[in-house]
Amino acid sequence: MENLHPADRIIVALDGMAPEQALRFAAQVKGLRWVKVGLELFVQAGPVVVEQLRAQGLRVFLDLKFHDIPATMAGACRRAAALGAELITVHACAGSEALQAAEAAAVEGAQGAGQPAPTLLAVTVLTSWEEQRLQRELAITQAIAERVPALAQLSAISGIGGCVCSPLEAAALRAQHPEPFALVTPGIRPKGAAFGDQARVMGPAEAIAAGASQLVIGRPITKADNPSVAFAQCCAELID
Questions:
Q1: Do 237 and 192 meet the contact criterion of CB atoms below 8 Å apart?
Q2: Beta strand extents in the chain (DSSP E only)
Q3: Which of 5, 42, 84, 216 has minimal Cβ neighbours within 10 Å of its Cβ?
């Protein structure tokens, strides 16, 4: 991952967009290589939006955060991989049996459809969680700093290729899991951007230096007056 072009490290989240808007936006941003399709867009547009984005030459991170019994997670990952999604999220807390089933099914689905094998990314702790609220509302006694590496370790030994984590946990996870284990980090806010609903954030260059493989950036680019310029500025932060 060390020699990746900055544009390959930035995944632009198409959150909050209607299907036609998402396709138009993705086609207009100069140099864009990766996009994230989340729950809202996928529920509205269905699998066809993944195919349409790929037809525009884009690589797709399908962020549906599968969390179910092993057979259902396997079936979902099989279908997602057959669409050509190259990054697919699952919840680490689904457990080792479900994670193993999902990984095997994703490889099978990609091979059957003639697509590249995807990387499954296990979600550890969502970046919107603040520690005291997580412990209080879910009765979890572990600190986030303990829970994230425990879930990452469970994912790794289950054969999952990477994790989604806060950039604040990237350094500790990278020390525990060298590349090619992927660390994809939302909660990225470029210089001057508002935090929004993210509680645990970091700048693009800082996150990469901490060990992140790729960065998910949404509103600082999608809500910018000129998204192409905003995307280029994010890329430039990784070079400076």
A1: no
A2: 10-13, 34-38, 59-66, 87-91, 119-123, 162-164, 182-185, 214-217
A3: 5
Q: Which residues does the annotation mark as catalytic?
A: 65
Q: How confident is the model at residue 117 (pLDDT cuts 50, 70, 90)?
A: very high
| pLDDT of 201 higher than 80 | no
Q: Return d(Cα 75, Cα 102) in angstroms, integer.
A: 8
Query: Which of the residue ranges 35-39, 186-190, 233-237 would you say has the lowest mean pLDDT?
Result: 186-190
Q: Cα angle at 29 between 8 and 116, to 5 degrees?
A: 40
Quote the tokens at residue 162.
């990477």
180 by Cβ neighbours in 10 Å (0-12 / 13-18 / 19+) ranks as exposed
Q: What is the pTM of this model?
A: 0.93
Nearest to 224 by CA among 50, 11, 12, 19: 12
Single-letter code of the amino acid located at 174: R
Residue 3 to residue 33: CA distance in whole angstroms: 16
Residue 195: exposure state from Cβ atoms within 10 A (0-12, 13-18, ≥19)? exposed
The confidence score (pLDDT) of residue 141 equals: 92
How do residues 69-80 score in pLDDT, each as one tens digit? 999 999 999 999
Q: What is the pLDDT of residue 191?
A: 64
Helix axes of 96-113 and 144-157: crossing angle, nearest 10 degrees: 50
